[in-house]
Amino acid sequence: MESLVKALGPSEEEVAALSRQFKHGGELLAAKKYAEAESEYRAAAKACQAKLGLSHPTVIMCLNNLVVALKAQGKQEDVDSVVREVQMLVEHAQVLDDPAYLKRLNERAADLAKAGKWADAEKEYLTILLVLSDLRGRDHPEIFSNRLKLAGVLAKQGKHAEAAEEYRVVVASYGHSLGTENPGTLRLQSVLAVELHQAGKYDEAVAEGRAVLDGRERVLGATHLHVIESCFNLGLSLAGLGKVEESFGFVKRALDGWTTQLGPEHAETQKARRLYEALKAALEKTK
User: Fold this and answer.
1) CA–CA separation, 99 vs 223, rounded Å?
2) If DSSP states are collapsed to H, E and C, what string results for 112-133?
3) Is 264 exposed, middle or buried (0-12, 13-18, 19+ CB in 10 A)?
4) Measured torsion, CA atoms of residues 158, 164, 167, 168, in degrees rounded to the nearest 10
5) For residues 117 and 110, what is the distance between their CA atoms, to the nearest angstrom?
């Protein structure tokens, strides 16, 4: 413990607090107070990661002690989860000694996603992000390309709120580097709005959707298919907020645009027509 304390920082108070957590965790284990020991080791692991790095040996020690506390409580599912985390962190610690490791991770993640094993692919992409962050920094372009891949597999699992947060980070980065009205930035912001809608966050979806529509109209013109798509998506989210009259206007615009450019029988046109009719019926009931 003394060597651990010397290795820590940045302040004596934080070092003392972490030292007490380790000591108290051991005392709780010895006293067979496993639930309390679990809490102490979780807190110690989190604090140690913040000070020393995600895969520091002391973090591994915390997690191994956590496994002991979990096993004593019969929490096998939690045990398995922490063991997987330890394995991931050990691999991460070895990455600098194995330049091919990152390539293998990417190939494995892509194979898992291709096979529809979304939860496993999610874990691989999280590992890739961890490795890239250490190797190349948090703002490296590869970080954001992999966050997009992570967002995709999160969405496939129905984790739309988590996917939206990944898209939000990438949209902010693209906006800073490429400009907020760059077509690529607007495309990803459109996906962000859709994910927010899917997550039931209609107010946020509307805010993002308005920004996308305004940007696309300025860049692409009022009749571009991407603008028409943005009208429909915004109308859909407004309907989710119960703003039927405003929603109706955007959906009608989408219906007219798709009818003109894609034809009345196209799937997009039919989709807009169904929503248009539903909103029209809802408006008539209020008269």
Assistant:
1) 49
2) HHHCCCHHHHHHHHHHHHHHHH
3) exposed
4) -170
5) 10
- pLDDT at site 46: 84
pLDDT at 99: 64
| Cβ neighbour number for residue 10 with a 10 Å cutoff | 8
Tell me how far apart the alpha carbons of residues 219 and 181 are, in angstroms, rounded to a whole number.
7
Specify the higher pLDDT residue, 50 or 122. 122
Give me the mean pLDDT over the 184-194 stretch.
97
Counting every residue written for the chain, the total comes to 287
Whole-number Å distance between alpha carbons of 167 and 120 = 20
**What local confidence, expressed as pLDDT, does residue 9 receive?**
44
Cβ-based neighbour number of residue 50 at 10 Å: 12
In contact, 66 and 42? CB cutoff 8 Å:
yes
Give the predicted TM-score (pTM) of the model. 0.68
Q: Answer yes or no: are the C-beta atoms of 8 and 52 closer than 8 Å.
A: yes
Check residue 113 and give its pLDDT: 94
